[in-house]
Task: structure prediction
Amino acid sequence: MRNIILIFLLVMACCCSSACGLFRGKKETPPAAPAEELYSKGMNFYKKNNYIDAFEAFQQCRTRYPISELGIKSELKMADCLYYQNQYGTAFVKYQEFSRLHPKYKFIDYVYYQMGMSYYKQVCSIDRDQSFSEEAVKQFETLVALFPSSQYVPSARKKIERCKKNLAEHILYIANFYSRNKAYNYSIYRYVEVLQNYRDYIDSPDQLMFQIGKLYLRANQPENARDQFIALLKEYPDSPLAPQAESMLEDPSRAEKIDDVKISIK
Result:
């Protein structure tokens, strides 16, 4: 009987010891940091241009406090962090997502401006594809239309002008290439595109009209050439090229003897 009691006491002692050990080993989950602390942490990193750590802090604030004011501000700052790391494509997606989720945000005009800037920063030289210029124009024009009194509108307008000049120069670059290689129909198509869509950016539209008329003759399209020269004389009767246009109306064969006109952008 004594042996049974001793065994029972030993078993109880072991159980108590294990239970105490488990209790002592259990760690309490620390309380979540308040939104103010996380946002302040992110801003401290952000001001030091440490956008990687700033993004992480803002992300934590956004995840834990998604509907709070600081959570929403953190969401926008996450996009800014990507933008300043030159991750423009990803930044645009974040800005666009923010604009859809928070269309009434008090600084939503800034978001639209940054959407345009995300494309503007990727604009290439005129001999490269100009898709980014086209998209930047769309975004900046949306900003101007929606928020005409925004402080960002003057800058957006300047960038629209720069992008449109890039587009005009790019199309001229292609048109000149086709003209040099005697692909006249392709060249005409591109020159006409510039004349119709970017006339205000051409230094001398009369020169472009003259060039188009001459290329029509080279492409064996005398009727189109005639219409072009007549339009030139009507719109720019005092143009230095008016006498040559008149001479080619009289004798289209002269087109081969006249050098190409250099078209330039303002």
About this structure: The chain has a mean pLDDT of 89. Residues 153-180 form the longest helix (28 residues).
